[in-house]
Amino acid sequence: MSASTIPEDTGGAPDGGSDKYMVPALERGLRLLQEFGRDNATLGAPELARRLQLPRATVFRMLNTLESMGFLQRAEGGNDYRLGLSVLRLGFEFLSSMDLTELGQPVIARLCEEIRFPCNIVVRDGRSIVYVAKVT
């Protein structure tokens, strides 16, 4: 699940401006969450430290914080982590705040009924798409 990424080439500022208003700890935490995905459903502290080029102690504290807030949970075995329900809740809140979803749902429902095929509403995210509504 990747909703938005911070551009690498602008010093982290989405508009290409200065990064003086960036919060480095928050950026690191969000980058940690972005490491999880379909191909990396579970990750451990050593792997995350290597990928993010951060000290293991820093990654451990970040994991502990994200776990306590429900954004991560321990995978079976207890050493690795996976995304938690707070990520899903945040995603649902995002979707419910989008006019596109609210306005588009009846349109794709009618289209699905008319053509008798599943219909989706998608939003572009860089080179990927994110499904925001589906009717079958």
Describe this structure in words.
With 136 residues, the chain is α+β, with helices and mostly antiparallel strands. It folds into two domains: 1-84, Orthogonal Bundle (Arc Repressor Mutant, subunit A); 98-135, no CATH class. 45% of the residues lie in helices and 18% in strands. The chain has helices at residues 24-34, 45-52, 56-68, 85-96, 99-115, and strands at 43-44, 72-74, 80-83, 119-125, 128-135. It has a three-stranded antiparallel β-sheet. Strands 4-5 form a two-stranded antiparallel ribbon. Helix 2 (45-52) crosses helix 3 (56-68). It is elongated. Mean pLDDT is 87; it is low at 1-11.
Keywords:
136 residues, Arc Repressor Mutant, subunit A, 2 domains, 3-stranded antiparallel sheet, two-stranded antiparallel sheet, 5 helices, 5 strands, disordered N terminus
